[in-house]
Amino acid sequence: MKILVIGGGNMGQTYIHSFLHSHIVQAENLMILEKSIRQIRRLEKLNTGTIYQSPEECVPKADLIIFAVKPQDAALLYAEIGGLLHPEHLVLSIMAGVRIQTLQEGLNINKIVRAMPNLPAQIGDGMTVFTSTTEVSRPELTMVQNLLNTTGKALYVDHEHLLDSATAISGSGPAYVFYFMESIIEAAVNLGFSEAEAELLTWQTFHGAINLLSKNDLSCREWIDRVASRGGTTEAALRCYDQNHLKPGIINGSQAAYKRAQELGESS
Ligand SMILES: NC(=O)C1=CN([C@@H]2O[C@H](COP(=O)(O)OP(=O)(O)OC[C@H]3O[C@@H](n4cnc5c(N)ncnc54)[C@H](O)[C@@H]3O)[C@@H](O)[C@H]2O)C=CC1
Ligand SMILES: O=C(O)[C@@H]1CCC=N1
């Protein structure tokens, strides 16, 4: 089976590396369609598949086509490849917000898997949520799921609207975590640590907390209660968080990401 990845950026490269690293696909069966010369130069050094600049040379040869361009570039892509696709082409789209119906109407294809991965997929520790059209056969869906599994965990959902929800939680989520870590590092520097010390304290605290959570059955709230002694320091910090409406702020952030995914869906 020949796989074509359209867009050799962050996520396109992540998929290529994961597929090759897991030996599920050989480099001779991987094609990459990329339009940026700078990106092509980078991809050439990686030696991870055949690189193409022109859709005419690679789209007809592909069995599975992965759409990994920005949603804002989708319309132009449809114009470039529309005439080259046929109903047997299987498409995996990871573009945020872009709806299955738009792909069906814009490209006249029906075998579509829509997925929302996240960046830790780069190290095989990603989270992908995906769904598919009824035209995708069981063996085809299993094959796509096997590919997604090389990047971490994958969850199938029946309802497409959950893809925008997943974008707002796990898709964008790593950036939320880095934002919180960055804030703690800043707090540590303010409290007297060097930048390097602040990073060590913060990274190890996140690492330890996640490991603790993953190796036990307690909920986040139960762990918070174990850290926060009555009348102690943690309670003081958490009270300050509440006074500053931190939790509603975080929840609103995900709502804003969800709304943006829907807007991208309307415009691409
Ligand atoms: N970066 C992330 O954490 C995540 C991104 N996504 C989705 O993945 C998609 C790609 O995101 P990134 O990899 O971060 O973007 P990126 O900007 O790193 O890569 C996109 C690549 O597509 C190329 N491209 C654009 N139009 C093209 C065309 N017509 N033909 C060939 N190549 C073309 C660009 O030159 C660029 O190299 C987006 O739709 C995004 O919503 C999904 C989940 C996580
Ligand atoms: O920020 C974005 O639009 C993409 C989708 C999820 C993560 N990055």
The side-by-side strand order for the widest beta sheet comes to 3-2-1-4-5-6-7-8
The total domain count is: 2
Tell me which ligands are bound: 1,4-dihydronicotinamide adenine dinucleotide, (2S)-3,4-dihydro-2H-pyrrole-2-carboxylic acid
Tell me which oligomeric state these chains represent: single chain
Average pLDDT figure? 97
Q: What is the terminal separation in angstroms?
A: 29 Å
Q: Helical content, roughly? A: 40-55%
Function: Catalyzes the reduction of 1-pyrroline-5-carboxylate (PCA) to L-proline.
GO molecular function: pyrroline-5-carboxylate reductase activity
Catalytic activity: L-proline + NADP(+) = (S)-1-pyrroline-5-carboxylate + NADPH + 2 H(+); L-proline + NAD(+) = (S)-1-pyrroline-5-carboxylate + NADH + 2 H(+)
Domain Pyrroline-5-carboxylate reductase dimerisation: 160-264
Describe this structure in words.
- The protein is of the alpha/beta class and 268 residues long.
- The chain folds into 2 domains: 3-160, 3-Layer(aba) Sandwich (Rossmann fold); 173-264, ProC C-terminal domain-like (ProC C-terminal domain-like fold).
- Helix content is 54%, strand content 13%.
- The chain is built from 12 helices and 8 strands.
- It has helices at residues 10-21, 37-46, 55-58, 74-81, 100-107, 138-149, 161-171, 173-190, 195-214, 220-227, 233-243, 246-267, and strands at residues 3-6, 30-33, 50-52, 64-67, 90-93, 112-116, 126-132, 152-156.
- An 8-stranded mixed β-sheet has the order 3-2-1-4-5-6-7-8, sandwiched between helices.
- Helix 1 links the parallel strand 1 (3-6) and strand 2.
- Helix 8 packs across helix 9 (195-214).
- The longest helix is centred in the C-terminal third of the chain and has 22 residues, at 246-267.
- The protein is elongated and about 65 Å long.
- The mean pLDDT is 97.
- 1,4-dihydronicotinamide adenine dinucleotide is lined by residues 6-12, 33-36, 39, 68-71, 73, 76-77, 80, 94-96, 116-119, 171.
- Belongs to the pyrroline-5-carboxylate reductase family.
- It catalyses: L-proline + NADP(+) = (S)-1-pyrroline-5-carboxylate + NADPH + 2 H(+); L-proline + NAD(+) = (S)-1-pyrroline-5-carboxylate + NADH + 2 H(+).
- This is Pyrroline-5-carboxylate reductase.
